[in-house]
Design goal:
This protein is of the alpha/beta class. It folds into 2 domains: 111 residues, no CATH class; 222 residues, Spore Coat Polysaccharide Biosynthesis Protein SpsA, Chain A, CATH 3.90.550. 53% of the residues lie in helices and 12% in strands. The protein has a 7-stranded mixed β-sheet with strand order 3-2-1-4-8-6-9, with helices on both faces. A 3-stranded mixed β-sheet has the order 5-10-7.
């Protein structure tokens, strides 16, 4: 009876996974050409806001790529959030080279949301564009690619924050993980159920931020300036997405698994504030995948081992090819070998994240 129950769960989770990924990939594949069309014929003044804490090296390398954007009217507001390294010196150096850079120095850090608030309040533009200090735009047309998605109805734009290409397993897994998360929140936005974005690449009108009193609703949570904020202001009509390759940003992936676990734990800690839809939707993929592999593992020790191997192989092949076009849109190159490794490793990794979140997470850090 036990093994037949495992077979039932394996089949149900198999079907759930295929349907879930097929719906997402078909929807996003259809939006590619639309995303390259200008939805906003104007070129409004844009304020790019970046909060930085001890990011001297990254600012020196990446900030010029933001400041040299091919856009006619924009400013970059960098908030130095109580850095103890030579961030201040880098800021002074860059401000002499670029007259569109404005610096706000905070003597003491009071969290990323406070730093961003200072930058937003000092901004001149109605259109706010956000990225992180350890990120850089993939092209000089980043601002244009994001701002073009605004329209009379669309007041929030979700962009894609990718990770720089490296050959090691961890870097590729981080890239794969961020891609899976992105296609889920992009799909949710497309069906009018936006629940998150990433601070590495997103934009919204200042009036939207003011309408909910900024980050006050979740000010006591260290993270959430991106996902919790989007969840608090999004409705079925006001969110657009940008999958234009020119509008992507890149980040440097974590160097160690420990660093990545801490990063993921910090982000996942905000999910307790998600809406009921967001909690269910963002959990479907990993729960159904985990259930599938647990069922398959049990069946391997039964007379149904051959069926288990067939189901596992069939699912991997279907999943790989279902997402092929979407991976191309997001410029994700993953061999089938790596795809299999990541697909089976992810449930184990998220179990570690869950336990880490319960046992060790300190939400006072940003």
């Amino acid at each position: 009876m036990f093994f037949y129950t495992c077979t039932f769960f394996a089949v149900v989770s198999f079907v759930t996974q295929i349907i879930f990924h097929t719906l997402i990939n078909l929807k996003l594949a259809k939006t590619q050409t639309k995303s390259n069309e200008s939805a906003n014929s104007e070129t409004p003044f844009v304020s790019v806001v970046i909060a930085a804490k001890n990011e001297a090296k990254n600012l020196n390398n990446f900030l010029p790529k933001v400041l040299e954007q091919n856009y006619p009217a924009f400013e970059v507001i960098l908030v130095n959030d109580g850095s103890s390294d030579n961030t201040a010196e880098i800021c002074v150096k860059l401000s002499k080279q670029f007259n569109n850079l404005r610096i706000i120095h905070l003597k003491k850090s009071d969290g990323k949301k406070n730093a961003l608030t200072k930058g937003i309040l000092a901004s001149k533009g109605e259109y706010l564009l956000f990225t992180d200090a350890d990120c850089f735009p993939v092209s000089p047309n980043w601002i244009n690619g994001m701002i073009n998605q605004f329209s009379e109805k669309k007041s929030i734009v979700l962009g894609y924050g990718a990770y720089n290409n490296k050959k090691d397993f961890l870097s590729n897994f981080i890239k794969y993980d961020s891609f899976l998360i992105a296609i889920q929140y992009f799909y949710a936005a497309k069906i009018g159920k936006a629940y998150m974005g990433v601070g590495r690449n997103m934009a919204y009108k200042k009036s939207v931020w003011e309408s909910v009193n900024g980050f006050q609703e979740h000010i006591k949570i260290a993270s959430g300036d991106d996902d919790l904020f989007v969840g608090s202001v999004a409705n079925k009509n006001n969110v657009a997405i940008s999958v234009n390759k020119d509008a992507f940003t890149y980040s440097i992936p974590s160097n160690t698994l420990k660093d990545f676990i801490h990063q993921k734990t910090r982000h996942i800690s905000t999910s307790i504030k998600y809406s009921s839809f967001a909690k269910v939707f963002s959990s479907i993929e990993i729960i159904s995948r985990s259930l599938f592999y647990i069922s398959i593992l049990c069946l391997l020790f039964s007379k149904l081992a051959l069926l288990a191997l067939i189901l596992a192989s069939l699912r991997l092949i279907i999943m790989y090819f279902v997402g092929k076009k979407t991976r191309k849109i997001f410029n994700i190159h993953i061999s089938f070998y790596y795809f299999v490794l990541f697909d089976t490793f992810a449930p184990i990794f998220y179990l570690v994240i869950f336990l880490s979140n319960k046992l060790r997470f300190n939400n006072k850090k940003w």
